[in-house]
Design a protein that fits this description.
250 residues, alpha/beta, Rossmann fold, 4-stranded antiparallel sheet, 10 helices, 12 strands, binds adenosine-5'-diphosphate, binds magnesium ion
Amino acid sequence: MLDISNLHASVDNGEKPILKGLDLSVPKGEVHAIMGPNGSGKSTLSYVLTGRDGYDVTEGKVSFEGEDIGDLEPEERAARGLYLSFQYPVEIPGVPTLTFIRESLNAQRKARGEEEVSAPDFMRLIREKAAILNVSMDMLKRPVNVGFSGGEKKRMEILQALVLEPRFLILDETDSGLDIDALKVVSDGVNALRSPDRAMLVITHYQRLLDYIAPDKVHVMSAGRIVASGGPELAKELEAEGYDKYVRAA
Ligand code: ADP
Ligand code: MG
Ligand code: MG
């Protein structure tokens, strides 16, 4: 589904190379985890995949469902179902969460040339998805992220993913401290989204998250490349022994 070959990417107008020959394939239906030391380029990879401004591909290729997406705008990638979950949730005073999620869904539909969702259809959809994550209607009426706890913000982030139903979901769980509650929310969301025609890339520092998610593959990233790949046991090994072995190998 996602095929990345020899990807090189830079910031600062090509002055600063960060990804240096990265290869990665994620087949449809699979969940892959990426782990690796701070600064190895994990977040950069997620930005490059979603086409964020300021991250330039200098070599290599990214194809999504057989299509080279290197020249597509972020909106065009989103319309194809490539979705990066927000890592640092913003507060939007005055905008009820319900409204925000509905507008996100309608923006996605518009980009695909589809009609807006009707109010009753949206309510049916949001009730169904909110139930999976134990989110109350009261909470959905509150303004986006204002006064939400870390776990509640996480719930909203995952709820949005459940509503938008991306074909390919990228979750970057970088430096944010995930407590047990948030770990559960993220893993319930990922597990609810698992499907034979969807794939996910979960970037995480948390071995414990991978206990709940049970990824099909685990990759280690170091210095802008994937330097090791394996099954879930690789995450356990990293937890026990750290990244040293792989960092040296890079
Ligand atoms: P990770 O997510 O693995 O911690 P990042 O992708 O955030 O790594 O960063 C990789 C390296 O690229 C770091 O050295 C970081 O400082 C640098 N970097 C990332 N984005 C930028 C940017 N916009 N401008 C300058 N340096 C950047
Ligand atoms: Mg970082
Ligand atoms: Mg990061």
